[in-house]
Design brief:
The chain has helices spanning 2-15, 63-71, 84-96, 109-119, 137-141, and strands at 23-29, 35-41, 47-52, 75-79, 101-107, 126-132. The longest helix is centred in the first third of the chain and has 14 residues, at 2-15. With 153 residues, it is α/β, with parallel strands linked by helices. The chain is 34% helix and 25% strand. A six-stranded mixed β-sheet has the order 1-2-4-3-5-6. It is built from five helices and six strands.
Length: 153
Protein backbone atom coordinates (compact mmCIF):
# COMPACT_ATOMS: atom_id res chain seq x y z
CA UNK A 1 0.00 0.00 0.00
CA UNK A 2 2.81 2.43 0.89
CA UNK A 3 4.56 1.63 -2.38
CA UNK A 4 1.39 2.40 -4.38
CA UNK A 5 0.96 5.73 -2.54
CA UNK A 6 4.62 6.63 -3.14
CA UNK A 7 4.40 5.80 -6.84
CA UNK A 8 1.19 7.82 -7.16
CA UNK A 9 2.80 10.80 -5.38
CA UNK A 10 5.84 10.54 -7.64
CA UNK A 11 3.70 10.48 -10.79
CA UNK A 12 1.68 13.48 -9.62
CA UNK A 13 4.83 15.46 -8.85
CA UNK A 14 6.29 14.65 -12.29
CA UNK A 15 3.17 16.15 -13.87
CA UNK A 16 3.91 19.48 -12.18
CA UNK A 17 7.61 19.71 -12.95
CA UNK A 18 8.36 22.65 -15.21
CA UNK A 19 10.94 21.56 -17.72
CA UNK A 20 13.80 23.88 -18.62
CA UNK A 21 13.47 26.01 -21.72
CA UNK A 22 15.12 24.44 -24.76
CA UNK A 23 17.20 27.44 -25.70
CA UNK A 24 20.80 27.74 -26.75
CA UNK A 25 22.96 30.85 -26.84
CA UNK A 26 24.62 31.25 -30.24
CA UNK A 27 26.82 33.84 -31.96
CA UNK A 28 25.71 35.32 -35.27
CA UNK A 29 28.45 36.61 -37.56
CA UNK A 30 27.55 39.97 -39.06
CA UNK A 31 29.41 42.39 -41.29
CA UNK A 32 33.13 42.84 -40.63
CA UNK A 33 33.46 39.65 -38.58
CA UNK A 34 31.53 41.11 -35.64
CA UNK A 35 29.56 38.59 -33.57
CA UNK A 36 26.25 39.27 -31.84
CA UNK A 37 24.54 36.96 -29.38
CA UNK A 38 21.18 35.36 -30.11
CA UNK A 39 19.04 32.60 -28.64
CA UNK A 40 17.94 29.66 -30.76
CA UNK A 41 15.01 27.43 -29.91
CA UNK A 42 15.08 24.25 -32.01
CA UNK A 43 11.96 22.98 -33.76
CA UNK A 44 11.13 19.70 -35.39
CA UNK A 45 10.01 20.87 -38.83
CA UNK A 46 11.27 22.96 -41.74
CA UNK A 47 9.61 26.07 -40.29
CA UNK A 48 11.48 28.77 -38.38
CA UNK A 49 11.09 32.38 -37.24
CA UNK A 50 13.43 35.28 -36.59
CA UNK A 51 12.24 37.29 -33.58
CA UNK A 52 13.29 40.95 -33.28
CA UNK A 53 12.27 42.64 -30.02
CA UNK A 54 11.12 46.19 -29.42
CA UNK A 55 13.27 48.96 -27.96
CA UNK A 56 13.80 48.55 -24.24
CA UNK A 57 13.40 44.77 -24.36
CA UNK A 58 15.93 41.96 -24.78
CA UNK A 59 16.22 38.71 -26.68
CA UNK A 60 14.91 36.98 -23.55
CA UNK A 61 11.60 38.84 -23.88
CA UNK A 62 10.60 36.37 -26.64
CA UNK A 63 11.28 33.30 -24.45
CA UNK A 64 7.66 32.35 -23.70
CA UNK A 65 6.57 32.82 -27.33
CA UNK A 66 9.66 30.99 -28.65
CA UNK A 67 8.89 28.01 -26.42
CA UNK A 68 5.30 27.94 -27.69
CA UNK A 69 6.65 27.90 -31.25
CA UNK A 70 9.15 25.14 -30.38
CA UNK A 71 6.35 23.05 -28.85
CA UNK A 72 4.60 23.33 -32.23
CA UNK A 73 7.74 22.29 -34.15
CA UNK A 74 8.79 25.80 -35.23
CA UNK A 75 12.39 26.80 -34.53
CA UNK A 76 13.19 30.43 -33.75
CA UNK A 77 16.09 32.78 -33.25
CA UNK A 78 15.66 35.69 -30.87
CA UNK A 79 18.07 38.54 -31.64
CA UNK A 80 20.00 40.56 -29.07
CA UNK A 81 20.99 43.29 -31.53
CA UNK A 82 18.54 44.94 -33.91
CA UNK A 83 20.30 45.78 -37.14
CA UNK A 84 19.42 44.67 -40.67
CA UNK A 85 22.72 42.73 -40.65
CA UNK A 86 21.56 40.77 -37.58
CA UNK A 87 18.29 39.86 -39.29
CA UNK A 88 20.18 38.72 -42.41
CA UNK A 89 22.69 36.74 -40.30
CA UNK A 90 19.84 34.97 -38.48
CA UNK A 91 18.19 34.05 -41.80
CA UNK A 92 21.53 32.72 -43.14
CA UNK A 93 22.00 30.69 -39.94
CA UNK A 94 18.54 29.12 -40.34
CA UNK A 95 19.17 28.40 -44.03
CA UNK A 96 22.43 26.62 -43.15
CA UNK A 97 20.41 24.52 -40.67
CA UNK A 98 18.08 23.64 -43.60
CA UNK A 99 15.06 25.63 -42.51
CA UNK A 100 13.30 26.67 -45.72
CA UNK A 101 10.05 28.24 -44.47
CA UNK A 102 11.17 31.32 -42.52
CA UNK A 103 8.92 33.95 -40.94
CA UNK A 104 10.26 37.29 -39.73
CA UNK A 105 8.58 38.74 -36.62
CA UNK A 106 9.44 42.24 -35.45
CA UNK A 107 8.01 44.42 -32.72
CA UNK A 108 8.37 48.18 -33.08
CA UNK A 109 12.11 48.90 -33.45
CA UNK A 110 12.70 45.24 -34.33
CA UNK A 111 10.19 45.62 -37.15
CA UNK A 112 12.28 48.47 -38.51
CA UNK A 113 15.35 46.22 -38.63
CA UNK A 114 13.31 43.59 -40.47
CA UNK A 115 11.96 46.04 -43.06
CA UNK A 116 15.46 47.37 -43.70
CA UNK A 117 16.81 43.83 -44.12
CA UNK A 118 13.96 43.02 -46.53
CA UNK A 119 14.72 46.15 -48.53
CA UNK A 120 18.14 44.75 -49.48
CA UNK A 121 16.46 42.01 -51.52
CA UNK A 122 19.10 39.51 -50.34
CA UNK A 123 16.85 37.43 -48.11
CA UNK A 124 15.60 34.14 -49.54
CA UNK A 125 13.15 31.62 -48.08
CA UNK A 126 11.09 34.32 -46.33
CA UNK A 127 7.49 33.13 -46.42
CA UNK A 128 5.83 35.54 -44.00
CA UNK A 129 6.51 38.82 -42.22
CA UNK A 130 4.76 39.89 -39.03
CA UNK A 131 5.29 43.50 -37.95
CA UNK A 132 3.88 44.55 -34.57
CA UNK A 133 3.40 48.23 -33.70
CA UNK A 134 5.53 49.39 -36.58
CA UNK A 135 5.67 53.12 -37.07
CA UNK A 136 6.00 54.72 -40.48
CA UNK A 137 9.23 52.89 -41.39
CA UNK A 138 7.66 51.19 -44.41
CA UNK A 139 6.62 54.52 -45.88
CA UNK A 140 10.07 56.06 -45.51
CA UNK A 141 12.30 53.27 -46.81
CA UNK A 142 11.27 53.76 -50.43
CA UNK A 143 12.23 50.30 -51.66
CA UNK A 144 10.31 47.53 -53.36
CA UNK A 145 10.13 44.38 -51.26
CA UNK A 146 10.87 40.96 -52.76
CA UNK A 147 7.71 39.55 -51.13
CA UNK A 148 4.18 40.87 -51.10
CA UNK A 149 3.12 42.59 -47.88
CA UNK A 150 -0.47 42.69 -46.66
CA UNK A 151 -1.60 45.38 -44.26
CA UNK A 152 -4.35 45.02 -41.70
CA UNK A 153 -5.78 47.93 -39.76
Amino acid sequence: MRVAISITALLISICFIQFADAEELIELKVRGGISHKALIYEGGSSKAAVLAHQSGETMESWRKFANILADRGVASISLSSLTPDDVSAAVRYLEIKHYGDITLVGASFGGGAITQALATGDLENIKKVVLLSLSSALKTIGHTFPISLKFFS
